[in-house]
Design brief:
Low-confidence stretches: none
Structural class: alpha/beta
Strand content: 15-25%
Order of helices and strands: EEHEEEHEHHHHHEHEEHEHEHEEHHHH
Bound molecules: guanosine-5'-triphosphate, magnesium ion
Number of domains: 2
Shape: flat
CATH superfamily of the largest domain: P-loop containing nucleotide triphosphate hydrolases
């Protein structure tokens, strides 16, 4: 796919009243169009005050004009920025003038897409632009900035280089036999092993970064009537879930995204566990168990006046014991227990009065933060990157196993080739409309 060169225009600053608004124009013929509206353009990268006029020569606004000559611009094309007054009316009028004279409105992310298509950034860097803009905490912004400046891409390229030399060596060995290539299978196995380990480290850092991006999923589970929905409402700060004294009130999963101190949490309220013949409730419980399976943290809520029951044990066994499960003793306003942490993995609170809830929230945040500890090394990877890295590692592992089992050498070489293809997906995937569309359509307009 080659870069389209028609002229695109968009506001680069948010719509609304402000000190300054920036409108950007990019593509072939941009300078001629800009001159029709703003008069003679300043030398490249110099700011000059100009009056912006429409086709009838009526003044719209005046402000700074900056010209960037390709390839030294954000998009890699001729680009002009107009910095006018921060009035939505004049910005709209200015954009309209450009549209009337041959430009078209940019799609979301189209400036960045052109930057990628013109080789100004690789795909991981372009994705990091959106991640930086959307970062919800300082840590996430720092991690995105690292990727944007190319740190992640460099690591991927370095791994790619190592895989490439393995491939060259393996293919030479197939073509010319062992007298040409002095390396032994055990050398190659060691190189493969080292690659596997380095890929594993990068994946771990990416997984920690993913927590930053997507946050944790927190599921409220437990027996009927324990107060899960009451606690859910308190967490989300509104009466979203229906609460009644009837056991079996909640059937569907109720989901909400919350931002606690800049950390994203996806909170799910679910149907209470009990044996039932009601098919609707059975389906609710099935969904609850399914949600638990995807959670980073399960809050198992019990009514403290009822205590812990053998059934609670058997429900927990249904999803195995590997997940983080915290026991929440709710309704302490009735049981009389002191609010706060009971032990490392259990908390006492009243969802009704709110006492003890802040301590639980602080503990949850502490847990998320410790999972993302080591933040200087954090990588704000996307699922797409982690898939590619994992696939690459699987292929390298397969190649090493083939080698160690004295399989035909070609099998090992084929594994290494597939590993290289998998890794290539991160920075330079085959440019399909679908992939680029999926990535850039999530950007804001004007970026
Ligand atoms: N006193 C007191 N009552 C509570 C507390 N939490 C919940 N309740 C009451 O307990 C009843 C059940 O609360 P829910 O939040 O609907 O319980 P649930 O666990 O969602 O129940 P199901 O959806 O049926 O599984 C309601 O009448 C609530 O008002 C609490 O901390 N103290
Ligand atoms: Mg409920």
């Amino acid at each position: 796919m080659t870069a389209r060169r028609d002229i695109i225009v968009a506001g680069a600053t948010p719509t609304g009243i402000g000190a300054v608004s920036i409108v950007r124009l990019s593509g072939e013929g941009t300078f001629a169009l800009a001159e029709r509206v703003a008069g003679p353009l300043p030398p490249p990268r110099m700011a000059r005050v100009r009056t912006f006029r429409d086709a009838q020569n009526c003044e719209i606004d005046y402000g700074l004009v900056i010209r960037f000559v390709r390839p030294h611009s954000y998009t890699g094309e001729d680009l002009v920025e107009f910095q006018g007054h921060g009035s939505p009316v004049t910005v709209e009028a200015l954009i309209q003038v450009f549209l009337e004279q041959g430009a078209r409105l940019a799609r979301p992310g189209e400036f960045s897409e052109r930057s990628f298509l013109n080789g100004r950034m690789d795909l991981a860097q372009a994705e990091a632009v959106a991640d930086l803009i959307n970062a919800e905490s300082r840590t996430a912004a720092r991690a995105a900035f690292q990727s944007l400046s190319g740190a992640f891409s460099r690591e991927v390229r370095h791994l790619g280089g190592r895989i490439q030399s393995l491939r060259v060596q393996a293919e030479a060995q197939i073509d010319f036999g062992e007298e040409v290539i002095p390396s032994t299978p055990s050398d190659t196995a060691a190189v493969l092993k080292a690659l596997e380990e380095d890929l594993g480290r990068l994946i771990n850092r990416g997984e920690a970064g993913m927590i930053l991006r997507q946050g944790w999923t927190l599921v409220l589970a437990g027996p009927v009537n324990a107060g899960k929905s009451t606690l859910f409402n308190r967490f989300v700060g509104e009466s979203k879930a229906i609460v009644t004294p009837l056991p079996g009130t909640t059937r569907d999963l109720l989901e909400a995204d919350c931002l606690w101190e800049g950390i994203r949490l996806h909170i799910i309220d679910s149907a209470g566990f009990r044996e039932t013949r009601d098919p609707i409730e059975q389906e609710g419980i099935r969904r609850a168990l399914n949600a638990v399976g995807k959670a980073q943290l399960v809050l198992y809520v019990i009514d403290d006046t009822m205590g812990w029951h053998p059934e609670d044990e058997s429900w927990q066994q249904k999803w195995g014991g590997t997940r983080r499960i915290w026991r929440i003793h709710n309704q302490i306003d009735r049981s009389g227990r002191k609010p706060g942490r009971v032990d490392t993995e259990s908390f006492a609170l009243s969802a009704e009065t709110g006492e003890g809830v802040a301590e639980l929230q602080a503990a949850i945040l502490g847990e998320v933060r410790s999972a993302t500890a080591g933040s200087p090394e954090l990588l704000l990877a996307r699922p797409r990157h982690l898939d590619a890295l994992s696939k690459c590692r699987r292929e390298i592992l397969g190649a090493r196993i083939a080698l160690e089992h004295n399989e035909p050498f070609e099998l090992m070489a084929e594994g290494v080739r597939r590993a290289q293809v998998a890794l290539g997906q991160i920075l330079d995937p085959p440019e399909t409309e679908a992939l680029l569309g999926a990535i850039f359509s999530t950007f804001c307009i004007g970026k």
